[in-house]
Amino acid sequence: EAKVTEILIGYVKALMEQAGKVPADKAERFKDACIYLCIAMAVRGETAREGVTVINQNVNVLDFFSSLVAPALGAEPLSQHSVLRASCLKFITVFRTQLPREQVGAILPAVCRHIASESAVVHTYSAICVEKLISVRDRNGNGARSMLRYDPPSMKASLLQMVQPILQIIAENKGIPMNEYLMRTVARSFSFLKEHGAETGLQTLGPLSAILVAMSANPSNPVFNHNLFEAIASIVKVCVPTQPDAVEAALLPAFGQVLERNVADFLPYTFQILGLLLDATPSVKPLYQELFARLLTLELWRAQANVPGLIRLLRAYFCKHQAFAE
Fold first, then answer.
1. What is this structure's pTM?
2. Cis peptide upstream of residue 77 (ω within 30 degrees of 0)
3. Domain ranges of the chain
4. N or C: more exposed end of the chain, with fewer CB within 10 A?
5. C-alpha distances out from residue 135 to 1, 56, 141, 145, Å
6. Between β-strands 137-139 and 43-47, what pairing exists: parallel, antiparallel or unpaired?
7. Kindly report the CA angle at 89 between 202 and 123, in degrees rounded to 5?
8. In the Cβ-directed half-sphere of 256, how many Cα atoms lie within 13 Å?
9. How far, CA to CA in Å, does 21 sit from each of 7, 85, 152, 221?
10. What is the pLDDT of residues 260-305, one digit of tens each?
């Protein structure tokens, strides 16, 4: 292995020398080949959850990151060298466990700003990279990966700057329609930030509701839909205890349309979130009163997917029975 690695490192050095002798637009393919070779050399074991778990000790991943990946991601303008940028984002995603917190923290703003790229590949890789980074866990004293490496305060600014561009891409149907990776990043970001993302989360419920209504006309991507509701639920859990009226104002009209259209794919999620809203509401809204009789119809209970949400929502009704009696 050491001998093969030595030979491949020689090729990498030769490619980098070539990249230094040609214009930037031509150097891109040489640098991209270097990243491909580095990943091929270094990875000896990996999992979908943790990324690389075993690396080739003869490959200096951190040096490669500092000399090629970080400068490429920080280069201007953002619209150039999309292939190289995508490969750099993939590199960080693959080696997310090996890269030190300090280096990742320094490059994170550059990673996040790539969400604004016109290239669907680049902004998708940017979203995936961020979502994987905030999931990185370090080992505790027992050797189990139980401690999140990154804390919400240090990641807050970079994560929240991605939300608006992501929602704009989805709403305007740019790039990949119903891009599940983008919506998953929104969901995981608010789940990670918790109360640190409350203010932006509340502002985000309006655009998410608009996307929900649009998707309800043709819910063709179940993974995207799941991530959409996960994003809404993550925000609701944080915001509804302190601002129930504002949360209801943003969501109840959209949920009303889902119920009116009887969108089967959305009903299980809608019932669950309505249960959260009803638990926290200071005053029972007309939608809850109109919905109660429908909850008792056999048709809804025949769909097994509806049952957990229906039970959750009925429990909320029982807890609020005095409000309905009035």
1. 0.92
2. yes
3. 1-133
4. C
5. 31, 23, 19, 11
6. unpaired
7. 45
8. 12
9. 22, 20, 43, 47
10. 999 999 999 999 999 999 999 988 888 998 898 889 899 999 999 9
In whole numbers, what is the pLDDT of the chain averaged over residues?
Answer: 92
Q: How far apart are CA 221 and CA 180, in angstroms?
A: 8
Give tens-digit pLDDT for 230-248: 999 999 999 999 999 999 9
- Distance from C-alpha of 130 to C-alpha of 190, rounded to nearest angstrom: 12
Sequence-distant (6+) residues with CB within 8 A of 73 are: 85, 88, 89, 107, 110, 111, 114
Nearest residue to 72 via CA among 16, 128, 119, 141? 16
Rounded CA gap, 50 and 137, in Å? 8
Dihedral angle sign, alpha carbons of residues 158, 160, 161, 167: positive
Per-residue pLDDT tens for 120-144?
999 999 999 999 999 999 877 676 6
| Cα dihedral across residues 99, 158, 229, 219: positive or negative | negative
Q: How far is CA 290 from CA 21, 110, 265, 284, 296, in A?
A: 72, 49, 21, 11, 12
- 103 Cβ contact partners less than 8 Å away, ≥ 6 residues apart: 62, 65, 66, 70
Cα–Cα distance measured from residue 219 to residue 85, given in angstroms and rounded to the nearest whole number: 32
Q: Which long-range contacts (CB under 8 A, 24 or more apart) does 203-207 make?
A: 204/163, 204/167, 204/231, 204/235, 205/232, 205/235, 205/236, 205/239, 205/247, 205/250, 205/251, 206/250, 207/167, 207/171
Report d(CA 156, CA 151) in Å as an integer: 9
